[in-house]
Amino acid sequence: MKPTAAGLLLAGLAVATASPTTTCSTNSSTPSAPKGKWFDRFVVIVLENTNRGTTFGDPYFLNLTNMGMYLDNYHGTTHPSQPNYITMVTNSIAAGVFNDDDHNTTEYSIIDLMEPKGVTWKAYMEGYSPLANGECNPVSEIKETLYVRKHNPFMSFDNIRNNTRRCQNIVNAEQHFAKDVALGAGAPNYMYYSPNLDNDAHNTNISFAAKDIQYLVDTMLNNKEFMKGTMILITFDENMIYLNTNYGQPNAIYSLLLGNDTIKCYSCVDQQYYNHFTQLVTLENNWNLGNIPNGGGWDTFWRPFGQLRSKTDDICAYAPCSEYPDGKSPPPADADWNDQNY
What we know:
Number of domains: 1
CATH architecture: 3-Layer(aba) Sandwich
Structural class: alpha/beta
Distance between the termini: 28 Å
Radius of gyration: 19 Å
CATH topology: Alkaline Phosphatase, subunit A
Number of helices: 12
Oligomer: single chain
Strand content: 5-15%
CATH superfamily: Alkaline Phosphatase, subunit A
Shape: globular
Strand order of the largest sheet: 6-3-7-1-8-9-2-10
CATH class: Alpha Beta
C-alpha cells in the first residue's frame, strides 16, 4: 500500500517541542527593514519535478554548481507539487494542503512575520495576470501563459489573497523582476520566483529550464549593488519519486546557494540535512522574526542553513574575495563534480 502524501511529509520529522507565540499584524505601517544576520536579501527560484542526476546532466547546472554552495542533502517535503510550495512559506504541515487542488487557509505565513519588521517582499509569477482593480487573481491556471496557482503558495492564504495591498506584491515576473533587480539595494528583501510550466521543466526538461535560469542568474549577478548582502537559492519542489518506478525513494533534490558575501565557500558541498522548512527557519533567524503562530510549529524544530557568512566574519575567511565575473556564464565544471554519485 502506498503511503499518503501526509505520511510522506511526516516521514523523518519530529514533533515540535515548543509552541510559537508571535502575534501577527497586516497593518501597512511598517518600520525600515532591519539588517539581516547573514543576508539582507533572499531570492528563491523554484523549479519542478526533476531528479538530481538529471539536473547534473545539464551542462549549465553542472557549471553553475561551481559558483556556489551545493546543498547535497536537501529534500522536498512531500508529493505532489503544491504542498512543497506551501511548506516554503509556512510552518504547519503544508497548511493542510496535500494535493494540487485550489486551497484556501486561514493560517499565517512568513509574510505575517516580515511585514511588522519592515522586511519587504514580492512574489514573481511567470504568466500571472492580477485583476484590473489590483486584487489577487485566484484563477487555477492561465493556459495561454502557462501560469498555475498551485505553484503560487501565497494565493492560498486568506489574509494575502483577500488583502488588496498584499495582492499588489504578487506580480507578473516578466514585467517586474528585471526592473526590481535594477533597483539594486532598493530591491525587495524577500523575492520569491516561480517560472511558468515550460520554464520550470514541468512540461519540458531541465535543459529548456536552464535557459530561463541563466537569464535570471545573470540578471542578478551582473548587478553588483543588488548582489551586496544577497543570497540566492535555486531549488526544486520535488523529484520524480511519485512515479511508480521511484516511489518510496528519498525526495532528494538539487539545491544551490549563491552569493558574493553571504556564503562561506564557493564550489563546495554542504552535507547537512535540509528541506523546504529550512528556508522558513533561515528567514526567521536572519531577521529575528520569531516563529509563525500556527499550530504546526515545524519552524521551532529545524535549523537554518549552516554555512552562511555572518556580518562579523572576515570577508576573505572562507571564500575568494573576488566577485563573480560581470556578464559571464559559470566557469567550466571542475572534473571532481563528475566523480560525484548524484
